[in-house]
Amino acid sequence: MRPGSSERPESANSIRRSTRQLLHNPSTRRVYAVANDLGVDDSVTVINTATTINSSEIQERNHFHTPPNLLKDLDLKNSKQNIHVRIRCLFLRVGEIDTLNERYYAEILLQASWEDRSLKKTSHFSFDPTSSWTPQLELMNGIGDLKDEVSYTVRFNDKEVATVTEHHQLKGTLWERMELQYFPLDIQDLSIIITTSHKDTELIFEKNMQKPSGVNRRVFTDEQEWYLFEHVDIRVTEQIDEYIDDGHNHSVVICSCHAARRYGYYMWNAYFLIFLITSASFATFPIPLANIQGRIQIACTLLLTSITFRWLCNKALPTISYLTAVDIYAIGNIFSVCLLNIYHGVIGYVNYYFATNLDKAIVDTVSVANIIVIDRWALVVFTILFFTYQLGTFVWMLCVPLRQRRLMFKKDKECQLAIASSYNNANITFNHVLRGAQRSLHNAQTELSIISHRD
């Protein structure tokens, strides 16, 4: 697969160096050098309808464009320690989720922060990313050309240690393998996969624990089909040899938000219709055994209807090598109709055999009565098995796929409580955090801490 191609890679493990997209564009790079030498009274107030939020004001200097330079890794080469890069991911907007083609559109603010002790605070301080160390981030699951605006902020703490933050504003289509085992009760992970050209002995990714990641749910364009959760999971993997061709291991960070499919449409138009089609097969039992061909005709018609309906349902899904939940349910019902067809064929043959090969008196007194009893018990057994299967399917839905949704809602609540506890304000939500981050970046300032300066 060529870089920038719209073709989908076979799997995440098959994405190699040739498919990486370097998150680095000198023509759009901006640098904001910041010094935190403000007094206690200097603050910024962010006001909204629910909460008044105070944060330390950040002064910026030296806004300039920088040309490329070959000395960008000079500090790293002179350093003997690996650098810990803290990752924060904000999904500013999630667009259409294309299940059939396994991709989605997103606008993402990705922030990578690290300490650089080689930077010294001066009256005319400037930060040049072309001559200073940067993490050299690379996107691994991009499709086509993504828009990437890169900017830098530098913040000095009380000990005059510089913390550099690299901001990436990404817009574009990302590939994501859709896990459809539980369709239509599935939950999809919408991920952005980031790696680096630095070896794992030089750079280690870690989650930014001071600044929360999250999702902006207010501008979700596919809301009628999906429910978007607010929390973001950040997972760091190490020693991923499949991703590289240079013989070294590179650290990989996966930032994932989660979307749950709204299953109401599929419950009524898939599960319920399959249930009705299969239930209609029990209407064949009142037909007399003397007209057994009528039973078989109706049962075969229902069988073909079930197969055709299942084929129509699968047209909305990508070609996959496993069965989804609705597939298993449909096949189970088709199998029950097949058993019913076999039963009608067998009982019809037995009735015909007794009617043509035995004495009429014996048939009238023994065989007919026994066949009718068998037919009635067959109706009872098939009915019990059918509704047991329906009940088992319902219990499985509650205990497996719907349980995952409950866990996701629990994670959302835990994330909200963590944000409120972190800022000592019960009225703080992630929307306030997101608004502060967007406003600070838009005004070319270092990111605002919502309640107080926390770095």
How is this structure best described in words?
- This protein is of the alpha+beta class and 455 residues long.
- It folds into two domains: 12-262, Acetylcholine Binding Protein, Chain: A; 265-401, Neurotransmitter-gated ion-channel transmembrane domain (Methane Monooxygenase Hydroxylase, Chain G, domain 1).
- It is 33% helix and 27% strand.
- The chain has helices at residues 74-78, 264-279, 292-314, 325-357, 360-399, 401-422, 430-442, and strands at 21-22, 30-35, 43-47, 52-56, 59-64, 83-98, 103-116, 137-139, 142-156, 162-175, 187-196, 203-207, 214-215, 226-228, 233-237, 252-261.
- Strands 2, 5, 6, 7, 9, 10, 12 and 13 form an eight-stranded mixed β-sheet that branches. Strands 1, 8, 11, 14, 15 and 16 form a six-stranded antiparallel β-sheet that branches. Strands 3-4 form a two-stranded antiparallel sheet.
- The protein is elongated and about 115 Å long.
- The two termini are 42 Å apart.
- The chain crosses the membrane at residues 270-290, 296-313, 320-343, 377-400.
- Residues 1-21 are annotated as: Disordered.
Gist?
The chain is 33% helix and 27% strand. Helix 2 packs parallel to helix 4 and helix 4 packs antiparallel against helix 5. It is a multi-pass membrane protein.
For the biggest sheet, the summary is: 8 strands, mixed
Q: Can you give the helix content as a percent range? A: 25-40%
Could you say which structural class the secondary elements and strand pairing correspond to?
Answer: alpha+beta
Separate helix tally? 7
